[in-house]
Amino acid sequence: MTENKETRNNRKSIRGVVVSDRMEKTRVISVERAFRHATYGKTVRRSSKFYAHDEANESKSGDLVEIVSTRPMSRLKRWRVARILQKAAQ
Questions:
Q1: Using an 8 Å Cβ cutoff, are 52 and 26 in contact?
Q2: Structure confidence at residue 15 (pLDDT)
Q3: Would 45 be classed as within a structural domain?
Q4: What angle do CA 41, 42, 46 make, to 5 degrees?
């Protein structure tokens, strides 16, 4: 295998809000994106949910986190919580 180290460390990263912290070591992250409609030009908002692995169970619901792509960890988990950017207001 001749795997280039540059491609291995070039992981996708996105920011989102934790919407569920009920599972053990798993978080559900909601990522919202905005784009202009092709025909009408109106700004449209869409959200996607990602399942992310959180080894230390340190992120809580409402936190703003950054997640990075990783190997498949289960049927749904393909992301990992890299860091907590902002804690939720208690």
A1: yes
A2: 98
A3: yes
A4: 120
Token pair in block for residue 48: 């996607």
Contact 45, 34 (CB under 8 A): yes
pLDDT tens readout for residues 36-71: 999 999 999 999 999 999 999 999 999 999 999 999
Q: Please give the Cα distance from 23 to 42 (Å, whole number).
A: 37
Q: Is residue 79 domain-resident?
A: yes
The total number of residues shown for the chain amounts to 90
Reduced to 3 states (helix: H, G, I; strand: E, B; else coil), residue 67 is: strand
Question: In whole angstroms, what is the distance from residue 19 CA to residue 29 CA?
Answer: 6
Q: For residue range 21-32, what is the model confidence (pLDDT) as tens digits?
A: 999 999 999 999
- Residue 5 sits at φ, ψ, to 5 deg, of -65, -30
61 vs 90, residue with greater confidence: 61
- Residue 38 falls within a domain, yes or no? yes
Q: Is residue 1 part of a domain?
A: no
